[in-house]
Amino acid sequence: MTFTQLHQPFPEQVSFHxxxxxxxxxxxxxxxxxxxxxxxxxxxxxxxxxxxxFKRTAENPIYKIEKRPKLRMKQGQYALVGxxxxxxxxxxxxxxxxRVLERKLIRIVD
Length: 110
What we know:
Strand content: 15-25%
Structural class: alpha+beta
Largest sheet: 5 strands, antiparallel
Distance between the termini: 63 Å
Number of strands: 5
Order of helices and strands: HHEEEEEH
Strand order of the largest sheet: 1-2-3-4-5
Radius of gyration: 16 Å
Number of helices: 3
């Protein structure tokens, strides 16, 4: 380790990479078009990043997509969290974690 690495006051913030955001925004756009979602928020914190999804702007998020790099080798760095705080899916592949929400787009057509 170099001197600057040892004496950094704060670690860098965790954020979503462009490729991760394109996967999330693709799903988000389809859900907005289906009338399911209306708004989103992104938070980049020291230990994790959160993409919050809202049905209405003034409400609590109905889903949160979390990225926690420290859990990469344990449970998986991505997690889909429901409105009640329950983890719906966790893993290292963002697309497979978001497949839970993809199923909401599939509807039976008469």
